[in-house]
Amino acid sequence: MTTPPTSSEPEALLAVRDLTITYATRAGPVPAVRGVDLTVRPGEVLALVGESGSGKSTTAHAVLGLLPPGARVDGGTIRYAGTDLAAADESVLRAHRGRAIGLVPQDPAVSLNPVQRVGSQVAEVLLLHGLAADRDTAHARAAELLGEAGLDRPRDRARQYPHELSGGMRQRVLIAIALAARPRLLVADEPTSALDVTVQRTILDHLDTLTRTSETAVLLITHDLGVAADRAGRVAVMARGRVVETGPTDEVLTSPRHPYTKALLAAAPAFAPARRTPSGTAEARDGGTPAPAPADLLTAENLVKEYPHRRTGRHTPPPPAVDGVSLRVARGETLALVGESGSGKSTTARLLLRLTDPTAGRITFDGQDVTRLRGAALRALRRRLQIVYQNPYTSLDPRLPVAEIVAEPLRAFRVAGRAERTRRVAVLLDRVHLPADVARRRPAELSGGQRQRVAIARALALRPDLVVCDEPVSALDVSAQAHVLDVLAELQSEDGLSYLFITHDLAVVRRIAHRVAVMRHGRIVETGPVETVFTEPREAWTRALLDAVPGRGRSAPADD
Amino acid sequence: MKRRLPRTLAQALFVLWAAYTVSFAVLYLLPGDPVTIMAAGGGDASSVSPEQIAELRARYGLDRPVPEQYATALWNAVRGDLGTSVHGGQPVTRLIADALPATLQLAGATLLLALPLGGAVALLGTYTRRRWLRQLLLSLPAAGVSAPTFWVGLLLVQLVSFRWGLLPAFGNDGWSSLVLPSVTLALPAAGLVAQVFAKSLRTALAEPYIDTARAKGAGRARVHLRHAARNALAPPLTVAGVLTGGVLAGSVVVETVFARTGVGRLTATAVTTQDIPVVQGLVVLGACVYVTTHLVVDLLHPLLDPRIAATERPAVTT
Amino acid sequence: MTELTTPPRTRAATPEDPATAKPAAPRPGTPSRARRALAFWLGRPGLLLSAALLALVLLAALFPALLTSRDPLAGIPGERLLPPGADHPFGTDQLGRDLYARVVHGSALTLRATGLAVAVGLVAGSLVGLLAGYLGGRADDALMRLADVLLAVPGLLLSLALVTALGFGTVEVAVAVGVTSVAMFARIMRTEVQRVARTPYVEAARAAGVRWYTVLLRHVLPNAAAPVLVYAAVDFGAVVLQVSSLSFLGYGARPPQPEWGALVASGRDYLAPAWWLTTLPGLTIAATVLAANRIARALDGEARETP
């Protein structure tokens, strides 16, 4: 514990050596970080990349001495400018937190104190570390800092409460807090994962500028290789509590040495090759006019959905959630519906599934007008039109075993007897590459990727023609993502399924879709074959979305 | 807030009306003839002569159709006339007004004891790092809410008054007679406040913004008081509102135990003698207390949480 | 993998749960089910004691003869107001009746009234809440306004008003107390039904073509029931207190029937000479309520841990 910093790393600002952290759980201690070595030099950006559960966040929090209850540092050192923070007492840690090491936390929605004005929250750092003579100067300085972090009208903003700001603005406040005391090291824990890509990009750009001008070193924790590629000089890849590979970003991304890094890169949608050329029918006709053609399975014409606004409150009614959407999905085709949060893409999906009724417009399915279908006819439609939800943690009834969940549509339509149902469930689980014994387990015992495949199996039980996938992989790690996407593609080629694929992630679109429709403010702004839209976007908004994708512009590593 | 006030007031009036109506329905329309019940006064119903019953029936207007009875009673209630007691014949409002001051003293003293006590136990119990102190402080509230008030009251009388001879056991004479009853009522009240506050403090302490505050370099005390406690105040405030009504109800037991006069004693007597107009008056009083405290709590909440001030709250919430 | 994404934020240690503060088995790997159960109970002596006490009370209510051979109603004139001792563990009352036997036999009356009251609240409240939550709209508004009004009158006052109308007696008291908890049961059930009805798995069932009543019975009700049942456990302790308060005030069982609250009330006249007459039955009530609350809290915690 008392070894002085070795001479081989004279300039290290932060040196983590052989760090071991365990969580105490009911089942006994679980190691989360197992002998991690990390070095951050002054002014550099080091990205710590890994999937959930790799221990990257735990490592980051250990640097600040902010481990969650139950976690304990079992060994190793965390040297910041010569002081071992792993062995330091609370008062030393307190002097370092905020002053020497700033933290940008994960989720801006919940990381600000909801009952305090944001200006005071920034000023608190200055007052705590004696960087302002009195309250007034602290508050004045806080407003300046908010301005530096990129908030407009910082003086007014300082007097606002967190709930009055958007997610991106809250993250800027958190950046202002983290940088208020001009720390030499910034720990950014997935700083933009909860934000839309366009917002993510401007915020990361801004953070770049700020830290570069003040020569602040950054330890950037991220699951997104694209973000790491764009922002970091060096990358450390973490898996199962260990750093498996570390080196300059270009080197690690272009010629990864460790098998895990290779697998991660292969799975990452941002670096993955585009889908093979899709079947001709869909590509032949460009988007735009949704004239129903025989091959079209599903069409929508001028769909509008308005939500009744409250009597009290707003004076002007809010714009419709969906405002004149027309689209079509051909047999055997995947149409991706892309947009940021609030663009109306999920509402469109719910309209098409007839889970909610449109205010205006027309929906046809296999040539039949289904816009106002009710009762038995609607149930008959449901057999052919299924859905896979975004969050596999909430879309499966936690009380039922997997076999019951997958068999539910069969039961609902009394398709098969008990024995036949069991047999079909086994087949379905096999088709989504799940082992047979999963049938007896409950959702809580499965990983996220496994659960999502259970949801896919359920959607396939009735052999539908079209499956609506509502952000099916956004809650999953990249390797699980890749697996689910592969399963979906395989099922399509075997059964000729059509997919309507709702997503915010353009990288995923490139991997799975034939055609893409870009939504914004409840309208479709551009539609066409994926390659066309991606290489020659016609609309400025599409271009902005594409530019914001992290890791874009970097060539994919050689496939091996 | 200005826009909310009329709506909150309308809701308050609705609750009062509904409480009156429900109690009218329960007391006058349930099986069992109210006149017979009242005339018997908790005694044997067969001892009442038919003439007495007819006379009572006419006096209370119970020989008229129910809607008319209700309309008359409601109109009278709106004008502040809640009828007269069956036994003794005084106006109900008079009886309540006479009993109220003593009970208000009791309620005030109880809340003054309970809120700081409960708050302090919760704050200290969640703050201290000494395991034994933490365990002790956080298990006290459970004991407080589990002990029957009548039993705690009798224990206090036994020990403090009889054995040690420190304070008067019974009656309404002066402040010294107020101590034991208010302590008796304050113990479970403080227990409830402490339980709710400790729970909301623990929830607040697990929020990510606490990590943000700690990452700024704030010390434990500052994080606890300025960040966690501020955010954890809403639930105990709501409970404090509910407690005011609870103290009123608790006074029924406590005033019986300590032989004090007051609303609680009036209630006990009215129920025992099945004096229906008085009981109904007391139910309406209970609803009034609820509505008033609720109004105050409702107006205080936005001061604690700016998010409430910004948005309209949907429907009636308690 | 995913277990570690949400670091096990062990809830701040509560005094009754030393096991959460100090993780049990130090060796890795999952211990056997029996050993885990053993560790669970040994780590919570308070819970163990509570369970044992409630079991004892239940035994007293069902088979009082197993715990005492004395007659709760027959007094021995020569043994009036004897303090607790080897012969009479709780002492004797002013008529020479054995207080321990009276407390044991009284548990039947108290528990019966409590059970009835909780059942009234649970059944009526759940039904109202289920209807309100599932139907929504006007039915929801009307039912919940009614529940608000019930909550507006302090519980004890409301049950006193009901007792006035219904008359005195154990069953009447039980019904009156039960009515006061209807509103809370209704609210919890409604909230749960609405929460579950909004979950994607319910929508997924609808999208899969499952009929609404099947959705209600197969998905909504089972997933909404747990918190309501937990509240029934929470309510149990409060109801014991209310029932004994009403019988203390003299509206419950008629003397000479032994009922816990009534026992305390009748001991009031001998407060100075015979402390045990009030203290010991009261202690029994307090201990029972404490034990019930402790168990309710354990159920509450477990319900939250297994989503």
UniProtKB/TrEMBL annotation, chain A:
Record carries keyword Transport: yes
A GO MF term: ATP binding
Pfam families in the cross-refs: ABC_tran, oligo_HPY
UniProt cross-references to InterPro entries, sorted A to Z: AAA+_ATPase (IPR003593), ABC_transp_ATP-bind (IPR050319), ABC_transporter-like_ATP-bd (IPR003439), ABC_transporter-like_CS (IPR017871), Oligopep_ABC_C (IPR013563), P-loop_NTPase (IPR027417)
Keywords: ATP-binding, Nucleotide-binding, Transport
Gene3D superfamilies recorded: P-loop containing nucleotide triphosphate hydrolases
Disordered as annotated region, ranges: 271-295
Domain ABC transporter: 16-265, 298-546
Family: Belongs to the ABC transporter superfamily.
Protein name stated in the entry: Peptide ABC transporter ATP-binding protein
Gene, per the UniProt record: dppD
From TrEMBL, chain B:
Record's keyword terms, sorted: Cell membrane, Membrane, Transmembrane, Transmembrane helix, Transport
Membrane-crossing segments per the record: 12-30, 104-124, 136-158, 178-198
CDD domains in the cross-refs: TM_PBP2
InterPro entries xref list: BPD_transp_1_N, MetI-like, MetI-like_sf
Membrane topology: Multi-pass membrane protein
ABC transmembrane type-1 domain residues: 100-301
Subcellular location: Cell membrane
Gene3D superfamilies: MetI-like (1.10.3720.10)
Similarity section: Belongs to the binding-protein-dependent transport system permease family.
Protein's name according to its UniProt entry: Peptide ABC transporter permease
Species this protein is from: Streptomyces hydrogenans
Automatic annotation (TrEMBL), chain C:
ABC transmembrane type-1 domain residues: 107-296
Record's subcellular location: Cell membrane
Record's keyword terms, sorted: Cell membrane, Membrane, Transmembrane, Transmembrane helix, Transport
Pfam family, one: BPD_transp_1
Major location category of this protein: membrane
Annotated TM spans: 46-67, 116-137, 149-167, 173-189, 228-253, 273-292
Highest taxon above the source species: Bacteria
Region (Disordered) location: 1-31
Cell membrane as UniProt keyword: yes
Membrane topology: Multi-pass membrane protein
Comp. bias intervals (Low complexity): 1-21
PANTHER family tied to this protein: D,D-DIPEPTIDE TRANSPORT SYSTEM PERMEASE PROTEIN DDPC-RELATED, OLIGOPEPTIDE TRANSPORT SYSTEM PERMEASE PROTEIN APPC
Family: Belongs to the binding-protein-dependent transport system permease family.
Protein name per Swiss-Prot or TrEMBL: ABC transporter permease
Organism: Streptomyces hydrogenans
